[in-house]
Amino acid sequence: MRATAEQLAAFRKDIGSIPCHDDAGLLQTKSRDYYWYSPILKERLDHCLGQLLVRPQTEEEVRTIAESVARHRIPLTVRGGGTGNYGQCVPIDGGVILEITGLSAIREISDGRVICGAGARIGKVENEVARTGQMLTMFPSTKRIATMGGFVAGGSGGIGSLRHGMLRDGGNITYLRIVTVEKKPRIIELRGKDILKAQHAYGTNGIITEMDYALAPATDWSHAIALFDGYRTALDFAVQVQDAGLDAYLLTVVERGFARFYRRLTDHFPGGRDAVFSMMAPDAMLEFRACVESFQGTVSLEKSLHEVEAANLPPAWECGWNHTTLQALKLEPGIWSYLQVAYPRPFDPGLVVRQKERYGDEVHFHHEMARMDGAVQIFALPLVRWRGRERMYEIIHEMEEIDGCTIFDPHAITIEDGGMKEIDTVQIEFKKEADPHGLMNPGKTRGWLPEMERA
User: Fold this and answer.
1) 3-state SS, residue 198
2) What does the pLDDT read at residue 32?
3) Cβ(347)–Cβ(239) under 8 Å?
4) Nearest Cα to 303, choosing from 318, 291, 290, 285?
5) Whole-angstrom Cα distance, residue 329 to residue 171?
6) pLDDT digits over 402-439, tens only?
7) H/E element, 89
8) Among the listed residues 199, 342, 220, 212, the one whose alpha carbon sits nearest the alpha carbon of residue 281
9) How confident is the model at residue 221 (pLDDT cuts 50, 70, 90)?
10) Parallel, antiparallel, or unpaired for β 113-117 and 134-136?
11) H-helix segments, 311-444
């Protein structure tokens, strides 16, 4: 599907003064995300390159771009901050990359909601809503550079999911404004449960230009590290904190093998103990410390965010979720990859002990406490020593077939193979409406078939 020189020339003529770039170095940078966490995806996607980069500043410019790519049948890939891990914004078939960061306006902040452009950086939105005494219900560990729309289109949960569920749960997002990719682009507004037609669709079925997001009253969370003698003990402690109803925004259990990757935390996370990184409400800290002591643990760090930053230490959210993988790969590139694991409910810490015995130093575990559909859900994003594709899928098979876990495969490029495990027909039906020629992010969903394309 790569566009011809004639198609690209016609496209450039159509869009007029909208910023458009064909610099090879810039195109290479803008054709990448963090897929290199996976050696399998690195081999698959390293050669993929967009042919043009466009940077619209308004929704009307987005409509002009959408109209032209539809007319000339040019593949289109929408890009935010490029912090995804699965190649969501990598243009497999070349074509046009639409960088959405110019649509960054924060249109309205009200009690419990913010409405903003899809290209707004999450950190910027967070700073603005903080002026009203509120905060985002959740955010990714890459919030400093990730965009709101990118998180919605490519993410599923993150820091805050322990308190507010996954992105698709409840009212975290209730409004999406979408430009269709067709010769006469339309505006479609999705509200309520209809946002699931486009949420976590990898940008395959419409260009999100504006959205809303839930806010909660601001809390000056205490960033705390608790240390324990044994990973099972650390897990049991984290479960107890939840069972006791302590007000936590983040609970991340990290085994001692990660300590060498957190160089700024050497005094607080020594290699001989397992850790729980947390963000706790200040009025819960007394009971938190008592709970740590009841498990014969120690609190090695307890600071507000301001104090953490003043001490040049990483905040708790940069010590969990997929930031753990990033820290390991920065220090020991080529040695590690990772998996994403959901554990059966109710959670059995003994299963983790058996997994640790099975894999030894081949796998370093850390576990995330979250909520899904209103119930506690335990995830893991373990580091896996890279010993080839065959071995990686042996481990996946064992965890699924022996342990009853669900693996959200981070080595796959399609929505279905990566997480859903089945084709979301609702999203495919919406693609027929919003991207009838199948031009958006081709190759990222198995549910779209060539015969579905509108002539």
Assistant:
1) coil
2) 96
3) yes
4) 285
5) 35
6) 999 999 999 999 998 876 677 889 999 999 999 999 99
7) none
8) 220
9) very high
10) unpaired
11) 323-331, 349-359, 389-401, 415, 425-434
